[in-house]
Amino acid sequence: MTRPLSRGLATVATLALVVAACSSGDERPEVAADRRPAASNDPTVPPAPPAGLEAWPESYRDFPKRPANTLTWAQDVAPILNEHCVTCHRPGGGAPFDLLTFDDARRRATEIATVTKLRFMPPWLPETGYNRFEGERALSVEEVGVLQQWIFEGMAPGDLSAAPATPEFPKGWELGEPDLVARLRSEYRLPAGGGDVFRTFVIPAVADVDRYVRGYQFRAANPSVVHHATVEVDRTRSARRLDAETAEPGFSGMRAEGAHIPDGHFVGWVPGRRPTLTPPSMSWRIGPDTDFVLKLHLIPSGKPEPVDVDFGMYLAQEPPTEVPVMIRLGRRVLDIPAGAFDYEIVDAYTLPVDVRVLAVAPHAHYLGHDLRGFATLPDGTRRWLLRIPDWDFNWQDEYRYVEPVTLPRGSVVAMRYSFDNSTTNIQNPHDPPIRVRFGPNTTDEMGDLWLQVMPVRPEERETLYRHYLKFDLERTIARYSVLTEETPDDVWRWNELGHHLSRAGRPTDAADAFRRALAIDPDYAYARRNLAAALVAMRDAAGAEAELRALLASDDEDAVAHTHLGNVLLATGRIDEGRRHLERAVALDPNVPATRDRLGRVYEGTGDFVSARTQFREAFRQDPTNLTAIYASAWIAILHPDRFSPDEALADARALVDASEASEPVALETLAAALAVDGRFDDAVSRAEEAIARYRALGMPDGVARGERAVATYRASLAPRDDLRLRF
Amino acid sequence: MTTDPRARSEKRHRVAATTAPAPVANVAIVRPRSSRTRAACLATGAIVAIVASSACAPESAPPTPDPTSPEIPGTLERIELSNLAGDAVAPVHDAPGAAAVLVFVRRDCPISNRYAPEIAAIHADYDARGVGVWMVYPDPEDEPRTIRAHLEEYGYPQRAVLDPEHRLVAAVGATITPEVAVALPDGRLVYRGRIDDRYVAFGQARPRATRHDVREVLDAVLAGEIPAARATEAVGCAIEGLR
Predict the structure, then answer these.
(1) In chain B, residues 49-88 whose CB comes closer than 8 Å to chain A
(2) Residue A21 — φ and ψ, nearest 5°?
(3) A328 vs B30 pLDDT, higher one
(4) Is B15's Cβ below 8 Å from some Cβ in A?
């Protein structure tokens, strides 16, 4: 110990200067509401901290002490490291060094002492004592005391042969061979130097049919550079399009319009997270159209690194029966002045049904500071949901309650976050600080608290979901009302406001917003189209028509305007003119199945059956979920044997059967009719009788009656008639 | 230590003034935002103080420093270390040119490795102007083979010496990797400490450095000014653990 002593005094002198300067009063005025006594009936004010919280020791001497010189690595330190540290600090665990052996610990003693006292390691942001979460990694005061004392006393090894066995971790796929794997392999190399990188990568769809995922393992080839991963799904190809814009794999930033978290579940990875399976009833769906969007936070290591990922999925056999609802509390109107130390946002939501809160996920960027989530029950009881007094964006995670928190109907769940945009925030992306607004980049700011919630009674899920969507929509409208007041000349914002007002069933207000947009920019086509749609909702066909004609006057190639005008004209009885506009719309943009379907109906109405069937078949080809289109096509062929062959009728009928659920009676009776057209009356009778049986089982007497007429017709070897088809 | 749990949460965000601030011209400080950063200063100080004063009771306070002393050794004596070929070389005194930059690194320190691009850049920018960058490996478990692989992997300048007995470490007063010392050819030490101010503590890094300390010193030396000896605190892995 003499070597450190001789150098130590010199270093101590330097460091004592550091200590002194650090202690030079960083007084801040008390501004946050929760530092005053809490008003007991305001659900947006956090409750008092739980009783019995332990203060964290300020210095080494304040930690609890064991008897002097009795601590050894083998007996006292290894169990702590094995339980709390080794899950990451082992080969392949993601940490930059191991802590498996005595020598590992001895070589890292200074670091261990520093980071555990700071509570920087193990990484665990929620404050101990507020909630109990699974996988809680934080060390207790006693455990940190043991580590500090062992190091101070010279790091005795103890009897290494009596040390606990090195923990074993399953290699590779920890839950066994996955059922499905999505692989990210690319030429991308994380640069050697520079700051943290936030990049999104896309893995195109891997499922052949709908699959239900009940567990996954995110395996980065290089876990020490992937600091955090969020996995979302995208059924719109928007992320794929962004990826294709540049030759480089992936795209910078986190923005992908169509990507969203899978229904009701957090999917992602942080160092040390172990894969788990949910019950099979609680899976999330992926389909043949589902791309995976990997949003990665990458930390340069000093040399270029590949970023390859294997995302293995474990499937349930059946669709989920329990789908959690994700409730987001938060604010998207964030405007943090430069230098503000304690900027606060608040949000609250009243639960319409009894729920259990399963997990929480807080989110903010580098300015987030003190994050609080809490609930107020109807009887006045207050509960903490989450307390993170010292947010660190680099260690964000989701937290699953050991015991789900039951909240009765009428409880108010709330969040209150504070942000530090001053120079005392080392991680402030801007030096000097600048004004920061809401946005997805890490140089912007966000404040969300996601609650994964299950209704206590499954039949109330729909109620909860609709109620929450309404709350979210109202919040969005409120936000855009504020934003349009701030920037009254921003056309896009007025259009967005109108859009959300339309969704909320307020077409008159929506129309006003769209008019505001058009007052600023009369050529803003989106707003004019939207205004026309709002006028239709207000039953002002003449107004809608005027707007749409104005649009087409300035741009005759606006397919959407042609479609809308066509629909308005059809609705007001001008069939020919309406038809011409729909035809033009289809010519300009052939791939809108809804327009094809509409045009098919028009042709059917005017007796142009060949054109009608063409449109219906095309609508179905573009959208195989549109069963009414293929149904209409089949019956046109069936009822007009002068224009269509029996093979054509059968082809359509079989397509309908294939696309329908098994034993769907409407499909069966269509197939029966097609068989009759083909002269196979016995087969037709059998199919029709199957349809009758199904209609009986479903309790649908009209269907039964129709089926019986069909059977009578086919027994008499007669062709199908119009009264055997269902009119939608 | 307080018993009011609410006051505890307040203490995380307020730093009690316990000593009068000392003038600190030569030590760069960033005011901490939270107990994490604040305690980093305290913790590192406390551990070294404890280690240094092991002959005393743990509660004794460190001696009050003289704020005007540079806290780094004035002149280095000639020290010979083995290079990768096994020859004895003296990194400071044998290097011709304007200055020698000694970079203390560990192969297994993530912060040290993250600085590889900047160290390589300093070499690229200053080598032709007579500044020799030397990689110094204090880990007794390192050998030329593993060091060569490390230099190659991270793109470091290919000039390295091994210091398993910590002789150069002790002479310079290096305690951390990565830590840099800048010396003139006659052995005068003009700088010891961090490469830049990007890292404030473990887990606390700025998005970008605001002061590039080594470059500043080299620019001054190359301009013919001999700056007053200066030390800063480096953040990284302790050399002390390598024995």
Answers:
(1) 49-55, 58-59, 62-67, 69, 71
(2) -65, -40
(3) A328
(4) yes
**Distance between CA atoms of residues A62 and A217, nearest Å:** 42
Give residue B189's identity as a one-letter amino acid code: L
**Which mean pLDDT values do the consecutive 10-residue runs of chain A (728 residues) have?**
40 40 33 47 90 86 93 96 94 89 93 92 94 93 95 94 90 93 94 92 93 95 90 91 90 82 90 88 93 94 94 94 94 94 96 98 96 96 96 93 97 97 92 92 92 96 96 95 94 95 96 96 92 94 95 93 95 95 96 94 95 96 92 96 95 94 90 95 95 94 94 94 86
* C-alpha to C-alpha distance for A238 and A206, rounded to whole angstroms: 17
* Cα-only R_g, chain A: 32
pLDDT value at position B131? 94
Task: Give the pairing of strands B237-238 and A399-407.
Answer: unpaired
Strand, helix or coil at A158?
A: coil
**Chain A: residue nearest B73 by CA?**
A10
pTM over 0.95: no
CB within 8 Å of chain B, chain A residues 688-707 = none
| ipTM confidence | 0.72
**Distance from A59 to chain B by nearest Cα, in Å?**
8
Nearest to B36 among A18, A62, A390 (CB): A390
Query: How far apart, in Å, are the Cα atoms of A192 and each of A32, A305, A499, B176?
Result: 42, 7, 45, 22
pLDDT for A17 equals: 37
Q: What is the per-residue pLDDT for B241?
A: 79
| pLDDT given for residue B59 in this prediction | 32
- Closest CB to A118 among B15, B50, B202: B202
SS3 of A140, please?
A: coil
Nearest to A313 by CA among A242, A255, A265, A241: A265
Distance CA B136, CA B104 (A): 5
Half-sphere exposure of A391 (CA within 13 A, CB side): 28
Residue numbers in A near B5 (CB within 8 A): 49-53, 55
The whole-number pLDDT of residue A238 equals 86
Q: Following DSSP, what letter does each residue of A589-654 receive, concatenated?
A: -TT-HHHHHHHHHHHHHHT-HHHHHHHHHHHHHH-TT-HHHHHHHHHHHHH-TTTS-HHHHHHHHH
Gap between the Cα atoms of A433 and A7, Å rounded: 39
Output the six-digit token pair for A287: 């389909």
H or E stretch covering A415: strand A412-419
Backbone angles phi, psi at A232, to 5 degrees: -120, 170
Instruction: Find out whether A130 and A384 touch, Cβ atoms under 8 Å.
Output: yes
> Which chain A residue is nearest to residue B9, measuring alpha carbons?
A389
**Nearest CB to A389 within list B12, B67, B116:** B12
Q: Chain B: nearest CA to A121, how far in angstroms?
A: 9
pLDDT at A40: 59
Give the pLDDT confidence of B53-91 residue by residue, as tens digits: 333 233 333 333 333 444 678 888 899 999 999 999 999
Whether the per-residue pLDDT at B112 is higher than 70: the answer is yes
Cβ atoms of A30 and B74 within 8 Å: the answer is no
Axis crossing angle, helix A541-554 with helix A559-571, rounded to the nearest 10: 150
Q: Which of B24, B66, B202 sits opposite A114 (nearest CB)?
A: B202
User: In whole angstroms, what is the distance from residue A148 CA to residue A144 CA?
Assistant: 6
The amino acid at residue B72 is I
- Cα dihedral value A534, A537, A541, A547, nearest 10: 10
HEC string of A560-572?
Answer: HHHHHHHHHHHHC
The two structure tokens encoding residue A68: 């002097």
- Residue A17 CB partners (closer than 8 Å, separation 6+): B22, B24, B27, B65, B67
| Distance separating the N- and C-terminal Cα atoms of chain B | 37
| Residue whose structure tokens are 């020598």 | A103
pLDDT tens digits along A11-55: 444 444 333 333 333 323 333 434 445 555 789 999 999 988 888
